[in-house]
Amino acid sequence: MRGVAMHGMIIRSIQCFLEDTYGRPVWEDIAKGAGLDPEAFEPMMPNRETRTDEVLRAASRRLDKPRDTLLEDLGTYLVAHPAMQVVRRLLRFCGPDFHDFLYSLEELPERARLAVPDLELPVLDLREHDSESYTLTVTHDVPGFGHVMVGMLRAMADDYGALVLLDHIGRDAASEVVSIRLAEPAFSAGRRFDLRLKAG
């Protein structure tokens, strides 16, 4: 069920991203283009893994955007959109600045499972080459998740106020590699982050 849960989570995230960004009618068009019933679709049912690709292909056609760009936009949405504050908070608890955040990435899947026990995130492996240059290897069963990580990292850099250069530099059958260059850790003030959850 792990692969099913992973793909169900991704499809559900794509649905929320498309609805919140482009509107419900656009999601309905995309769902139909992927052979799904937008009213009866249950993302956590045991759908075949190609269902994720079908949704992404339909979205790429409908929006006239490359798949990789859509996945990066999805990663940014998961951090920056007001509806996704839970994800932002989980990531911000990884460290007080972007440098510490990077070094906490490998622990992120375990932290996420504490909050959502059934959540399966990719395995993340960070390698430091010097004080500014890193590579992040993303191992998973969802093709393209490295591009989602590029979008998330870009949004988190903005959140921390860091100037970061990111590049998706390749993939093999199981992994993707993201190049990270931390040009300026304190480039701007960043977004305010309050440790306390607001009531209501």
UniProtKB/TrEMBL annotation:
Classification via PANTHER family: GUANYLATE CYCLASE SOLUBLE SUBUNIT BETA-2 (PTHR45655), SOLUBLE GUANYLATE CYCLASE GCY-32-RELATED (PTHR45655:SF13)
All residue ranges annotated as the Heme NO-binding domain in the record: 7-161
Name of the protein described by the UniProt record: Heme NO-binding domain-containing protein
Gene3D superfamilies per record: H-NOX domain (3.90.1520.10)
InterPro entries recorded: H-NOX_domain_sf (IPR038158), Heme_NO-bd (IPR011644), NO_sig/Golgi_transp_ligand-bd (IPR024096)
Pfam families linked: HNOB
